Amino acid sequence: MPTEPAATPWKLEPAPDDHPHDLWALGADLAPGTLLAGYRLGLFPMPVQDELGWWSPRDRGIVELDAFRPSRSLRRSRNRYEIRFDTAFEEVMRCCADPRRPHGWIDEPFVAAYSGLHRLGWAHSIEAWDEDGLAGGLYGVGIGGLFAAESKFHRRTDASKVALAALVDRMRSTPDAGRRMLDVQWLTPHLASLGAVAISRADYLVRLSDALLLRDLFVA
Prior knowledge:
Elements: E1 23-26, H1 32-40, E2 44-48, E3 51-55, E4 59-63, H2 72-77, E5 82-85, H3 89-96, H4 108-119, E6 123-130, E7 133-143, E8 146-154, H5 159-172, E9 181-185, H6 189-193, E10 196-200, H7 201-211
Parallel strand pairs: 8-9
Antiparallel strand pairs: 1-3, 2-3, 4-9, 4-10, 5-6, 6-7, 7-8
């Protein structure tokens, strides 16, 4: 079972339904208790210039598990990779944080914070391996029936997509799959092609409250 950290000293609140912006608040910290409190309220952290921002998109991207449709080429690519869970969390995160990637924002404080959350059992990596090593993957935060995907990377073709498909398969395999939620923050054309949709902040918070009641996906 994941270990519950000390409660955050910060007063965090969910963004109201009518808040007009995706950015909701600035400040607080990246302590484990603060991170978990944020995710439980539908928030996630990303820096805003030199400050820590807490985001709650008006239109939230989620992958509908039943609608996820990997392409024919992606189904073929699955055979090239071995999927592993939580065997190289920090390596996955550091690959996602590679400063050569465009629009990179994951810095050392974020790596340290999420690695600590991983050691407590709340952050997870889904990894695609081949004969040359770690080929791609993604990491995120799992709380009950929520998996909040944070970032992904690939070194070889389709590796991160195969990792995402493996995560969807794992979430689908549970008896309460219809209540689980795979959060991808913002909808992109690529994610839309795989079955992701955008839902309102209000709908997201309703679904989140139900998902948090479920058994953690990574608890045996």
